[in-house]
Design a protein that fits this description.
It is built from 14 helices and 13 strands. With 371 residues, it is an alpha/beta fold. It folds into 2 domains: 14-177 and 357-368, Rossmann fold, CATH 3.40.50.2000; 197-355, Glycogen Phosphorylase B (Rossmann fold), CATH 3.40.50. The chain has a 7-stranded parallel beta sheet with strand order 3-2-1-4-5-6-7. Strands 10-9-8-11-12-13 form a 6-stranded parallel beta sheet, sandwiched between helices. It starts with 13 loop residues before the first strand and ends with a helix.
């Protein structure tokens, strides 16, 4: 019997997703969103590292998940593990969501007959961010001919222009997919300085982000808004520094570092204003897009990549990078102006529905692998 004859079930196209980690990060949730909106495909997820919170998520979506536990291995052992995971399997498309050891991984994928999409979620680090072996491999390793780089913003695409290994590859730009509810869930409420007011930020506690500016801004408004509290969701290497800064500023009792959380929508629903301070090393900011989809009025660092996300001042309050007083003024102004918060809420939600549409973005990714 052959496919097409009675009683034969046609094989569904099979997609491979390669990731470094199974954490609740942007790349990992982007992968889950694509799986969720590509239901006519079979999905294999291969993770270079250990199990994590997203392992159960992918399995719950019906994907086959395998962990290589090879991130600590040397390059030869790592390459052997990746090649072993691909042996004997046929795929109709591959999505590489990780920036870990990219030339080695792409070299392993070059022999596959299908196309490969490399997700670029952060700007190219440049020679200062790369070890010598990776710099040499970028110059010497052949560039696969079956790869397209999918950048999550034009800011990221521009950063790759001078990269020796990557600049020879074709590039496309697609914002990351963010699912928005069918209606704006945020209810703008009247606020007063003495009442309970919640300001929050979701992001890794990482040097790429800038929670410190939000913390300093909060310290400036704390005395005039005694009922306000600040909440950071996310974990990372900057935790101790931020805890020490909160103590130094005298606001530690009103600042909560929640660590990694599972219910991001629930956390966003508890906030009155969302603050997102970041640096030029930011790729797009999934958490900011999620806050917009939740209808939150947002105060954001004014960077070119952030304007790709929020548009202009009608979509968010934009503040000078690293300027805590500018952030404090923007936050204070919004807390005091319910109509301004209502307008920002509506604009943010409408923009999120329009530009982060998971169906359209999934289609773009599938088109990039020829499906």
């Amino acid at each position: 019997m052959t496919v097409g004859e009675p009683g034969v079930i046609p094989r569904r196209p099979r997609l491979l997703h390669l990731l470094a980690y199974a954490l609740r990060g942007g790349c990992e949730t982007d992968c889950a969103c694509i799986i969720d909106h590509a239901t006519s495909y079979e999905h294999d997820v291969v993770v270079f590292g250990e199990e994590g919170p997203m392992t159960a998520v992918w399995r719950g979506q019906g994907a086959r998940v395998r962990h290589l536990r090879a991130l600590q291995d040397g390059r030869v052992s790592f390459l052997r593990a990746v090649r072993g995971a691909l042996t004997g399997l046929a795929y109709d498309g591959v999505f590489l969501w990780s920036g870990v050891r990219v030339p080695l991984v792409l070299g392993s994928l070059a022999r596959l007959p299908c196309r490969v999409v490399l997700h670029a979620g952060n700007p190219y680090p440049g020679s200062r961010g790369l070890d010598l072996r990776l710099q040499v491999s970028e110059w010497l390793l052949p560039t696969p001919k079956n790869v397209t780089v999918m950048c999550c913003s034009d800011h990221v695409r521009r950063s790759y222009r001078g990269a020796p290994y990557f600049r020879r590859l074709p590039f496309q730009v697609s914002l990351n997919p963010i699912a928005a509810p069918p209606q704006n869930p945020h209810v703008t409420r009247a606020l007063s300085p003495e009442a309970s007011v919640r300001i929050g930020m979701v992001a890794r506690l990482d040097a790429i982000k800038d929670q410190a500016t939000v913390l300093r801004a909060f310290a400036r408004l704390a005395s005039s808004w005694p009922g306000a509290t600040l909440h950071f969701a996310g974990e990372g290497k900057e935790r101790r520094r931020l805890e020490a800064l909160a103590q130094e500023l005298g606001v530690a009792s009103r600042v909560e570092l929640l660590g990694s959380i599972g219910d991001v929508p629930g956390f966003l629903a508890s906030l009155d204003v969302f603050a997102y301070a970041t640096t030029p090393s930011e790729g797009m900011g999934n958490a900011l897009a999620e806050a917009m989809a939740a209808g939150l009025p947002c105060v954001v660092t004014d960077l070119p990549v952030m304007r790709e996300v929020v548009g202009d001042e009608s979509g968010a309050r934009l503040c000078r990078p690293g300027d805590a007083q500018d952030f404090a003024d923007a936050l204070t102004g919004l807390l005091a102006d319910g109509e301004a918060r209502r307008q920002l809420s509506q604009a943010a939600y409408a923009r999120a529905r329009r530009i982060f549409d998971p169906v359209a973005i999934t289609r773009a990714y599938l088109n990039a692998v020829g499906l």
